[in-house]
Specification:
Mean pLDDT is about 85; it is low at about 140-145. It contains five helices and seven strands; from the N terminus they run αββαββαβααββ. The chain has a seven-stranded mixed beta sheet with strand order 3-2-1-4-5-7-6, sandwiched between helices. It has about 200 residues and is an alpha/beta fold.
């Protein structure tokens, strides 16, 4: 991720603290004995609901400082998803929720390769990305490349086929598009849409 994007994220966490309202809603199961890597953990919202020993990484030191103060069960580490500081075949499960959409294609491919490297044989991966059905993509009326939000944070939106292509090095157990309506302002609701993929290491 380039310097400008890192600066935008640090600014967002500084101004708003715990960003985003959604937390882990148990769409996949973990066990107490699992060693889990939570990538792009932010302030730890996704980590705190999962069972297992959790190593949570993010490049934002501001986000990790918030996580340390509010989520006791995680071990937060400042790291880049493209260059994971872990040995091969370390983790039973790797979670990558909403990080691929903030990376360019080269960074996405490098991150996927790193996830494959640190995942145990027959280990699992849980991916979430925003879909092109999401109202923000429709509003942008641009290509799938990288529309920007008001915080100057870039977002890429995916089709199911695009995500499948990116995850071609894994065995996809299931992939689902999840949609809901979210209130935005007085008597106004927006269509939200994400794609979830649960994969196994080949």
């Amino acid at each position: 991720m380039n310097r400008a994007q890192k600066k935008a994220w640090e600014k967002a966490y500084t101004l708003h603290g715990r960003l985003w309202s959604r937390v882990h809603d148990k769409w996949f199961e973990t066990s107490d004995g699992d060693l889990i890597l939570d990538m792009g953990c932010g302030t730890g919202k996704s980590s705190e609901q999962m069972k297992g020993r959790i190593i949570a990484i993010d490049f934002s030191r501001k986000a990790l400082n918030i996580a340390r103060g509010q989520v006791r069960k995680i071990n937060p580490i400042c790291a880049d998803a493209c260059y994971l500081p872990f040995a091969e075949s370390s983790f039973d499960l790797v979670r990558a929720s909403f990080i691929l959409g903030h990376l360019n294609r080269e960074e996405q491919e490098r991150t996927i390769n790193e996830i494959h490297r640190v995942m145990k044989n027959e280990g699992a991966g849980a991916f979430e990305v925003f879909s092109t059905n999401d109202y923000r993509f429709q509003k942008a009326r641009s290509s799938v490349s990288s529309p920007m939000n008001k915080n100057e944070i870039s977002h890429q939106f995916f089709t199911a086929d695009q995500l499948k292509d990116l995850l071609s090095g894994f065995r996809i157990k299931n992939m689902n598009i999840i949609e809901w309506r979210q209130k935005a302002g007085e008597a106004k609701k927006m269509n939200r849409s994400i794609i979830r993929a649960f994969v196994m290491k080949k």
